[in-house]
Amino acid sequence: MLSNVLYINLTDKTFNVRERKDLFERYIGGSGVAIKLLVEELPAGTDPLAPANPIVLAVGPLTGIFPFASKTVAMFKSPLTGNLGESHAGGRSAVAIRMAGYGAIVIKGASERPVYISILNNRVFFRDAGALWGVRSSFTVGRIIRERETNPGARTIMRIGGAGEKLVRFASVTTETYRHFGRLGLGAVFGSKRLKAIVVSGMNKIVLRDARAYRELYDSIYNLSVKSELMKKYHDLGTAANVKNLNYLRALPTKNLTASCFEFAENISGEKLAQEHLGRRVACAHCPTACIHLGALRERYQSEPYFYKTTMVSYDHELIYALGTMLGISDATALLKLIEEVDIYGLDAISTGVCLAWATEMLERGLLAEKETLLALRWGDVEKYIEAVRNIVNQPNEFYAALGRGVAQASSIYGGTDFALAFGGNEMAGYHTGPLFYGTLLTGARHSHLDSAGYSFDEKNAGRIVEPEAGAQMLFEEEAWRNVLTSLVVCLFARGIYSESITSEALRVAGYSFSTEELREKGREILKLKHELKAREGFNWQNLKIPKRVLETETPAGKVDADYMQKLVEAYFKMVRK
Questions:
Q1: Cα dihedral sign for 214, 94, 315, 410?
Q2: What is the model's pLDDT at position 547?
């Protein structure tokens, strides 16, 4: 049942199930249920790496029923920001959790020895992971567990690599090889609990009362997906389609945002990668679009001149930005090699790229010496960046230990805060479109570009600056509605398909009754609950800062004005407090 919550205690290796209709009736599922469970289970002021920091995984009422409802929401206290941590991953995780009979899973405590959890319907097993601890590659961990856990049904394997074990604050959790809980350091929370992986296998069924209405609505959503233009971009090129467009607009952050366009962007664009490197497309469960684009990385074995290894590497806009344009890398093969290295260790690509870009500029300016970086980091030198990625994980000195805590922390020690591109402690995503994008990073509950997608408002306004109060209203209402979608849990790429009317009808068919206005109000309630938790954990919006670099580099709408941003942020948080 969706209303079942599985509670697992790693300290004493126990578990129990509670029916929580109260949660799912009020907060829908996904983000809504997860934030409420986090409020319940997280003691105020808890260290993010302490056993008391819970991991909450939640799915929604459309999971396993309609296309695109295939995301799992993870909620926790972030070791990167010291505040709210929320990350979403696709793959099969959501379907597996629901087919196992749960709407949410709460993991508390910490194990003395490395373990992985195996969940098979109503049974939970605590497996010894001593032999897996120390395996640096999340890919290898997945293969080993896959061979051992042969349970039938829908199955997911969520696991960490070396970065999570070493408590790198932006370590990710990999699921189904090409999907990740990437942002805000869930992998480090796994590592702090000595939790190498979670396997979930489910064999339950979902029974709907009105099969005819379900079939008709399913077909309507499916046809919108494959026969309209709404998802074509994601299928054809994926989000990598953004690279050329943003570069043309001069809105593509380059070399730590010292520039907003990259002269070699064409070489690593979505079009170029599709023409010369695309190996195949894959999809999350219950998704007809297949937006996951895999580049074929072909490398020659050094000892055998006519033997080659081909590796499939997932790429998208954010990876091309963070590990490409931000580092001045102009060769597609080199870019794929760097992406693969980041994936092997289980690092968030955005945070990794921003940290390395800052370090490169620090070295270039003479504010750091090679005795700290251990490498002569230079724009475009992929081999040096691969070594630096390994150093972030292995932490051979104090500098890399600091860099593994994020660019905000590293710059507070070594300087360069004016060009350390983080907001609320979270490294920025790949847009320099104008003030509403930066409004999203400042005001969003996760300080993530997907919270309210201000970059899309900037692009639609085509350089026209809206009044700060109007901009704040746009961001608040967009973020509130996105909290509805992430409570269902619907992939945000499909937000154009899941209009208010289709969302309400999909919920009705699934057995829920919410009007459009009720849904919008629930979105606002969930968003405010997130901000209440953030305030409880020490967040104060008045302490938010914009890196000076953002104000110096021209956007398509001109330079970002600090006074304008201050007014926008004030107006936004007035709405939060209403």
A1: positive
A2: 98
